[in-house]
Amino acid sequence: MSAVLNTKLASKEDYSSDNDEVSLELDEEIEDHSQELKAPRPSSRFRSRSSPKSKERSFLKNLPCSRGVANLTVMIISAGFIALAVALIVILNRGNGTTTCEDSVCITGPLANLVKELTQRSMLHEARALIYKQRNDGREWRTPYGENQARDLIERDKGDVWLDLYPASVVPKPGESVMNTMGDEELWKHLKDLGISVVHLNPVRRSGGITTDLQWTPTTDGGYDRVSLQVDPLYGTDDDYRSLVRTAAQYSGYIAGDIVPGHTGTGADWQLAMMNYKDYPYLFHMIEILPKDWSILPTVPEGHDAVNVSPDLERTLANMNYIDGIIDVVIFKTTGVKETNWAVTREVSGVDGVMRRWVYLHLFKQGQPTLNWLHPSFTAHELVVGDLIKTISDLGAKIVRFDANSLLGTERITDNSTHAKSLFHPLSAVTTQMLAMTVRKLGGYSYEENSILSKTLLRLGQATTFGPDLSYDFTIRGGFISALLTGDTRLLKLQLDLMLHYDVGRGQRAIHSLQNHDELVATFNYDEANPDELFTFGNVTMKAVDINAQVIKQNYAAAQADGVRLGEYGGLSTTLTTLVAGRLDIDLNGAPASLSSHDRQRIINGTLMLAAFNALQPGLFQVSAWDLLGALQLNSSDVDPQLLADGDLRWLNRGAYDLMGYHPDSNGRGVTGLPMSKNIFGSIPKQLTEPLSYVSQLQRMLAVRSELKIAVGDLQPDLSASVSNVNSSDIVVLATLLPRDFNNAVQIALLFVNWSTNTISPSLPVSSIGQYDINLGLPAMEHWPNLGTEYTIQNATLQLSLPPLGASLVVVSAQ
Fold first, then answer.
1. From CA 156, how far away is CA 170, in angstroms rounded?
2. Dihedral of CA 118/120/121/123: which sign?
């Protein structure tokens, strides 16, 4: 894979901007930066009352010599002033290829060329050019932007069912780019037939870094360390992206893109910041270490720009008031690789000739310097708003996702001089709300990955009112993964109760997602600032921290028994299909060839149950390519060791895929060199020929979702406590009050989900549900799966049968 990734390296001759105007504006800026040296124009209305000629005559009259000598003297003096002015202009002229001026400081020689090249490639420069092109013609007032517009996306734009695609894992169509492969019209025909209207693209911008000899370096975080606003040549071009958007529109679809507001890669912007050029240092959370203190800093190895700070040095720098402090969470913590959130640079020569060493914050990997959202220059705002304009107004995406938006601020804890907090800081909420309003002003929608302050659910509802239109559903995600792993539904039911208590989920703001590019979360999402908060866990009242400890122990044991690798934060580096097979005790050695048709169907049914739980409740639903194909996790031996060296195991759940079966031999690889996952279900066209396949049954499920308008329904409390004939811990019953039809009739959709590996026959009293009386004179309607599952209503009790890891949706009328 390293060899493939290294194809990203390009010399400066290989780099070309898609925006010629940006380069032109840069040249004009360089050439015209000394305009303040020009003399006032003769037409200035502030000219002297005495003309220059009258002053000359007065001066000549007082000379004790002849008029000719006087004239010669004036000419010599004038010529001297002109020569001096010309010399100053030449010195300050930035048009010279070997001179670059930054305010009063001029850079000469090779460094000038480097600064010019880096500036041309910087994201901040392109962002500013895009911002300044926005017309001040009143159009910014035409789009509502103060509050979230989720309902418009669902009802007006029909954008409530999404497909998640990870470009780094796409196996391209022969002879085509990744972007063109995702824009294949045959694919979009199938997506429309399935009921999918939005394709979410994970990052497609050039990512990684750039060296001082202008060579591109590979990504360190799977594309989440962007260094350019342009599409990475690995995936295609900006024009390919625009073509994808046009193809989607032909099939009433939209593209959703990713924005990373918290950090960048070590690209041109970072190199200019380390050189202390203009306002580039203000972009990042970086602090200059005084030379007198360099003796405490570690040596940076040859060939590296920086080295991670040890815990001891972190404490020392906090005590010396260089850094905020010891941050509360260390993401991707790996002994000997990343032990803190800080790094120190090598000695870097600034544009002023001063050598500097910096300490900088990287809440993610060392190659991802954190942006500074609190600096009064607002350079971080410019960069990210320019990114939004590029994504929506230029490339044409309809929706943007804010990655890791809960980590946009850090602050020292006042009662502890060496510690600081970062997760869910109020600055994150404020910044996310501002960005969300900007997206709406541009005519788009936004959603947040980390559900701002989601660990404080009371504030989540408040934040999403004015912030992003949608929130990724981390609230109950850990609960359904926990129930899948163990059959224990206590965590899931607790999280469902919390959603309803804090009105999270009733407003159609949640995106209920299956697999994604990250690890699967299997923990309790509680407020870490209040670990002693009490909750009802099953029938016991427990502290939040104790619930989480019990859940982690239980889930980890179950996952490890199935051969799943565990990530740093309770995440499972695997796929949902792998977990379903493990829960059903199906041996995957030699799969898929070794699987019997019976076991294959059992896995299909189990994964469909997960889809039903997420798709048949209010909000948006997102399925991934890995889910559609039934992808299994990769083995560590399948992945380039360099990708796993820093402890990041997510590559194991990011196997490459071929949705349309372009490569029948299954030997294709993603453009990053990732091997293709072993797939249980097969390609989309193949599955559409099989009535009981995952894709065919999902198609019927999504049709029911659309018919009943479940997306804009009103979620009611779980009814499993009222169920008889089964262990209530095995089952969840989601009740959704459906939107009233043209007859103003009241209907309630009852989703029964069996989390056990046994067939169960639950009975639910339905004479009344909540405040509604059920009309038993009207027959119930089983809407899904409608493949022979039996149900009856006798003595005001609904009875049905559910297969292992099975689900069924029944609709009853109320009054």
1. 31
2. positive
Out of 43-57, 84-98, 399-413, 553-567, give the one with best mean pLDDT: 399-413
Instruction: Please give the span between the terminal C-alpha atoms of the chain, in angstroms, as a whole number.
Output: 62
For residue 528, give the nearest of 569, 484, 494 by alpha carbon: 569
- DSSP run (H or E) holding 231: strand 226-231
* AA identity, residue 120: Q
For residue 624, being part of any structural domain is answered with no
Q: For residue 312, give the 3-state DSSP assignment.
A: helix
| DSSP E strand stretches across 75-139 | 99-102, 105-108
Residue 443's closest CA among 127, 48, 652, 156?
Answer: 156
- Comparing CA positions, the residue from 794, 747, 800, 745 lying closest to residue 769 is 747
Question: Could you tell me the pLDDT band of residue 99, with boundaries at 50, 70 and 90?
Answer: low
Residue 283 phi/psi, 5-degree rounding, is -65, -35
What would the two tokens of residue 674 be? Answer: 């990732």
Q: What share of the chain is helix, strand, coil (3-state, %, to 5)?
A: 35, 20, 45
318: tokens are 């906090």
Residue range 688-721, pLDDT digits in tens: 999 999 999 999 999 999 999 999 999 999 999 9
Question: Are 225 and 208 within 8 A, CB to CB?
Answer: yes
Which pLDDT does position 1 carry in this prediction? 40
* Residue at 727: amino acid letter: N
Distance CA 380, CA 401 (A): 17
Comparison of pLDDT for 54 and 601, the residue scoring more: 601
pLDDT in tens, 336-367: 888 999 999 999 999 988 999 999 999 999 99
CA distance 228 to 207: 7
Tally of structural domains, the chain: 2
Q: Token digits for 710?
A: 């479940």
Token pair 């591109």: residue: 216
- Segments forming the whole domain that contains residue 354: 1-34+93-160+197-444
Tokens of 22: 């940006």
Q: Residue 772 forms beta bridges with which residues? A: 769
d(CA 90, CA 95): 9
Pairwise CA distance, residues 138 & 193, whole Å: 40
Sign, CA dihedral 366-368-369-372, equals negative
Q: Among 395, 419, 444, which residue terminates a domain?
A: 444
Residue 666, phi then psi, degrees to nearest 5: 60, 25
Contacts of 779 (CB under 8 A, 6+ apart): none
CB atoms within 10 A of CB 768: 11
Report for 187-191, 338-342, 763-767: range of highest mean pLDDT: 187-191
C-alpha closest to that of 354 among 264, 277, 417, 454: 277
Asked, for residue 271, whether it belongs to a domain, the answer is yes
* Single residue among 396, 423, 444 that ends a domain in this structure: 444
For the chain, give the percent of residues with pLDDT over 90.
58
Q: Is residue 652 part of a domain?
A: no
Give the three-class secondary structure for 540: strand
Flag the least confident range among 67-76, 106-115, 330-339, 717-726.
67-76
**Global pTM?**
0.85
Q: Cα–Cα distance between 577 and 55 in angstroms, integer?
A: 92
What's the CA gap between 306 and 299, in Å, rounded? 9
Going across the sheet that includes 419-421, the strands are 326-327, 419-421, 411-412
What is the distance between the alpha carbons of residues 524 and 20, in angstroms, rounded to a whole number? 50
Collapsing DSSP states into helix, strand and coil, what is residue 812? strand
Mind spelling out the 3-state secondary structure of 562-612? CCCEECCCCEEECCHHHHHHHHCCCCCCCCCCCCCHHHHHHHHHHHHHHHH
Residues 726 and 723: their CA atoms lie apart, in Å, by 7
Stretch among 305-309, 353-357, 426-430, 586-590 having the lowest mean pLDDT = 426-430
Region of residue 788 (left: phi > 0; alpha: psi -120 to 50; beta: else): left
Residue 400 lies in a domain: yes
